[in-house]
Prior knowledge:
This protein is of the alpha/beta class. It is 35% helix and 15% strand. The mean pLDDT is 95.
Amino acid sequence: MGDRFLFVRTDADGAELKMRVERELLASRPDVELRGASCRTDDEVIEAARDADVLLTNESFITRGVLSSLPKLRAVVRYGIGYDRVDLEAATELGILIVNVPDFCQTEIANHVMTFILAWNKRLIALNAGVRAGDWVGIRRTINSRMGPTAGQLLGIFGFGNTGRMVAKKALALGMEVAAFSEHLTQADLGMGVRRMERDEMLRSCDFLSVNCALNAETYRALGAREFAMMKDSAVVINTARGAVLDEEALIGALRSGKIAGACLDVLEKEPPEPDNPLLAMENVLLTPHVAFYSSASVKKLAESVVREALLCITPGQRPVNVVNKQVLERPNRLT
């Protein structure tokens, strides 16, 4: 009998552990066993994945302690783009690959950003509530000059990677102006109409600021009191990336003082938020529960990508496509 391999998914949400798509894809691989385990602590992850060759994860925190306790582990494959829940330094030291899916949900997130902008400019939430409350005439009287035109407004993009680029394309299609300060701007980006600005100039000028960067040591609370203070009083901050890119306390202060007009947030620093989080009670805040990534098509494609990468981790002479800590490949590692 040939080698057998174990893939383990550890996540808190039991519904995610059914893995229908993954099981269908692995049905022709009798050499691979797929298990799911609901885990909320390091010890639970270690117990579930003790013999795993590949760990599949979305919500679980994969700490140094976890990685050090899994002697067979070749790779951690993330369901998504971000890898801030995995101890990258520890994985690299131990020769364990960290793999993500960088092209996941770009269209869905860009659509969510544009939905936020249109909902804000058209005041859809308030208008819908007024009509449903029987105040058709009264709510129509609230139409005012703060309802922006969208076309011609400036969208600043904080984090101009693949997702930021997709946001730019959608915004340009609606007639918005788009600016970014990233070194990743290409001639093609400039050619399609994205303007290069210095960081502070973009913050001072934008009508909407879309946060689309990864969360890491450099971007942790990168937008705080200083940045909000330089923005226009009419500006709106949109975050579909990670909650901790914003200094939440500073954001709340800027919203309360009227230093910025509003915020549209799909992510928060603590999820779910505490019931007394001031953002929940603010009328100038639109909130969605970390769902910008979702469509039925996007999550199916994600599952397919995760399985494909996991299989490459156990295929002799092969390596996964999207390795985050590429330096591991340059020396002896768990694949070899």
